[in-house]
């Protein structure tokens, strides 16, 4: 354990870093990269619960409370977030609706209700608010415009919350260039004057969507996955806006459209990464529930427990460390200050890595001599779990038997030092695992090596993902670069989920999760890796 003790950064070192202004705020700044539309071509209309352009000086929205019809403009905080505290105070003990969604493009194309306005829902997406359009009677629309050429780009962060008909996520012109969610087929659709591009998606889940209406070069991108097609753009006059469908509730937090401009692939990627990391930083909220999920940040809004239980070396006193509250971009990271206070002037070790899946498959290590170390200031000022010698491991107390041998595993890890042995970053049982060996990542099922990829020993952080789903369907992904294989493999024997040491190799982990009998889709894989890389800063 001496190597682990020497490698562990003590709490005062982190406290000095936070005191000098370095820390989580710097992580957020790097992830944010300024307001999302800075550097983009000028949009024709831009609407959001956050500031989209640094030079925009107006309010976000004007709201009306039901109790006395009192109206109030709600602006942004210094960080560019919707000033929810002011809005909550205005709407206390009553309900509020939006009577104007201010245009941040600079074109003064504000959206207002033609009849009833949508409701302002607080704590709609994490702790952030949204607009809810109830049925076909709630609409926000702007002044009539005529598209210049039919070429248009549209962007939306939205969901169909409930119901059986369509949600208009954003339209440049009524009945013309538009994005909408179709409940009957559970898909987003991009349409114009003729033709459509369709992308199936989960209902009642938040999505970041962008569409380019540009003839044969049209495309629809949902959560980072693009579908190409052909849409003839409309040049007929109409009004921009958003609305719900008949007997259908539709939620929205952001909508942008460009006239006579086609967003490039790089622009779509950058914008969607920014949107997803701001609006859905709790990455598993829109995913199928995993079998086990462990992280130094909160992964699911529904999880109400602590992050880890730690033991300090000076007197062996243990304590649970919780998560901070949810905010845009920062998500809900571990309460580092509480860990710092507990470990002051000594070193700490991880006794329990709590399972956020809801299955209570906590990873535990009761024996002090084999507990992984807690390393402060490990990745972007946040801590991590570290193993440095043979025998160090943290696993479930009881065995787990995979249902079919089909499994998805994900881990955010770093092989931080040399030595011998392989770092097992996450395993479902005693045989199915993602690990790093000398100079490569390895995906294994029992004694069968399913796939390998280079880059395991380069001393930097990676998002590794492995899927075991039989011959030709298994995948190894490192930072979003995927390789498939022609080798099958299953392992349904009982064993313990967990994270294991690589003998004398220095293995670091901040996040690991497992789905049993489920293969993450291409869209889910892209969204998860994008979220992980942005949050953890690599």
Taken together, the total number of domains comes to 2
**Mean pLDDT, rounded to whole units?**
88
What profile does the largest beta sheet have?
A: 10 strands, antiparallel
CATH class of the largest domain: Mainly Beta
| Count of DSSP-assigned helices | 7
The portion of residues forming beta strands comes to: 35-45%
- Assign an overall shape: globular
Low-confidence stretches: 1-33
The gyration radius over C-alpha positions equals 24 Å
Distance separating the two termini: 29 Å
Structure classification: mainly beta
Strand order of the largest sheet: 20-19-21-22-25-34-27-28-29-30
| CATH architecture group name of the largest domain | Sandwich
CATH topology descriptor of the largest domain: Jelly Rolls
- Binned, the helix content reads 10-25%
Number of strands: 35
Give the topology, please:
Blueprint: H1 2-7, H2 11-19, H3 24-32, E1 45-48, E2 61-65, E3 71-74, H4 84-90, E4 96-101, E5 119-125, E6 128-134, E7 139-141, E8 152-162, E9 167-171, E10 178-182, E11 187-191, E12 196-200, E13 207-213, E14 215-222, E15 225-231, E16 241-243, E17 249-259, H5 265-279, E18 292-295, E19 308-312, E20 318-321, H6 336-342, E21 348-353, E22 363-364, E23 373-379, E24 382-387, E25 393-396, E26 407-417, E27 423-427, E28 433-437, E29 440-445, E30 448-454, E31 462-468, E32 475-478, E33 481-484, E34 498-500, E35 506-516, H7 522-536
Antiparallel strand pairs: 1-17, 2-3, 2-4, 5-6, 6-17, 7-16, 8-13, 8-17, 9-10, 9-16, 10-11, 11-12, 13-14, 14-15, 18-35, 19-20, 19-21, 21-22, 22-25, 23-24, 24-35, 25-34, 26-31, 26-35, 27-28, 27-34, 28-29, 29-30, 31-32, 32-33
Helix pairs in contact: 2-6
């Amino acid at each position: 354990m001496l190597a682990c003790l020497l490698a562990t950064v003590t709490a005062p070192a982190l406290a000095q870093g936070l005191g000098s202004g370095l820390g989580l705020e710097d992580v957020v700044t790097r992830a944010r990269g300024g307001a999302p539309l800075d550097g983009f071509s000028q949009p024709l209309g831009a609407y959001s619960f956050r500031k989209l352009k640094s030079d925009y000086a107006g309010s976000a929205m004007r709201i009306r409370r039901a109790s006395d019809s009192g109206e109030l403009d709600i602006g942004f905080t210094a960080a560019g977030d919707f000033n929810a505290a002011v809005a909550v105070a205005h709407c206390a003990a009553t309900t509020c609706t939006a009577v104007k969604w201010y245009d941040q493009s600079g074109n003064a194309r504000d959206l207002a209700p033609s009849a009833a306005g949508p409701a302002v829902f607080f704590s709609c997406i994490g702790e952030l608010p949204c607009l809810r359009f109830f049925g076909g009677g709630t609409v926000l629309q702007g002044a009539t415009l005529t598209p210049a050429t039919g070429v248009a780009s549209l962007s939306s962060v939205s969901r169909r919350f409930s119901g059986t008909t369509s949600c208009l996520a954003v339209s440049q012109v009524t009945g013309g260039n538009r994005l909408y969610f179709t409940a009957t087929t559970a898909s987003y659709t991009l349409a114009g004057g003729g033709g459509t591009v369709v992308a199936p998606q989960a209902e009642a889940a938040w999505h970041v969507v962008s569409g380019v209406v540009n003839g044969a070069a049209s495309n629809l991108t949902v959560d980072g996955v693009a579908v190409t097609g052909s849409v003839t753009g409309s040049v007929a006059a109409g009004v921009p806006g958003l609305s719900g469908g008949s007997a259908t509730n539709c939620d929205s937090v952001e909508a942008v459209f460009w006239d006579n401009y086609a967003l490039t692939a790089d622009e779509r990627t950058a914008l969607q990464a920014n949107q997803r990391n701001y609006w859905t930083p709790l990455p598993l909220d829109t995913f199928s529930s995993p079998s086990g999920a462990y992280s130094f940040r909160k992964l699911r809004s529904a999880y109400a427990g602590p992050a880890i239980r730690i033991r300090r070396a000076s007197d062996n006193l243990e304590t649970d460390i919780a998560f901070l509250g949810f905010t845009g971009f920062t998500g809900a990271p571990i309460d580092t200050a509480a860990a710092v206070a507990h470990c002051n002037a000594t070193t700490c070790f991880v006794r329990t890595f709590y399972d956020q899946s809801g299955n209570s498959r906590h990873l535990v290590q009761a024996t002090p001599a084999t507990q992984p170390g807690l390393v402060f200031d490990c990745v972007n000022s946040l801590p991590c779990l570290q193993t440095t010698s043979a025998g160090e491991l943290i696993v479930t107390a009881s065995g787990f038997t995979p249902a079919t041998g089909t499994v998805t595993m994900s881990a955010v890890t770093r092989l931080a030092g040399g030595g011998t042995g392989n770092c097992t970053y996450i395993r479902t049982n005693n045989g199915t695992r993602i690990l790093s060996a000398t100079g490569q990542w390895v995906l294994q099922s029992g004694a069968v090596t399913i796939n390998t990829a280079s880059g395991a020993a380069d001393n930097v952080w990676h998002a590794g993902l492995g899927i075991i789903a039989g011959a030709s369907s298994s995948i190894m992904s490192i930072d979003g670069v995927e390789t498939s294989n022609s080798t099958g493999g299953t392992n349904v024997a009982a064993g313990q989920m967990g994270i294991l040491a690589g003998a004398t190799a220095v293995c670091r982990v901040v996040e690991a999760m497992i789905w049993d009998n489920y293969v993450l889709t291409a869209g889910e894989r892209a969204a998860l890796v994008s979220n992980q890389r942005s949050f953890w800063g690599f």
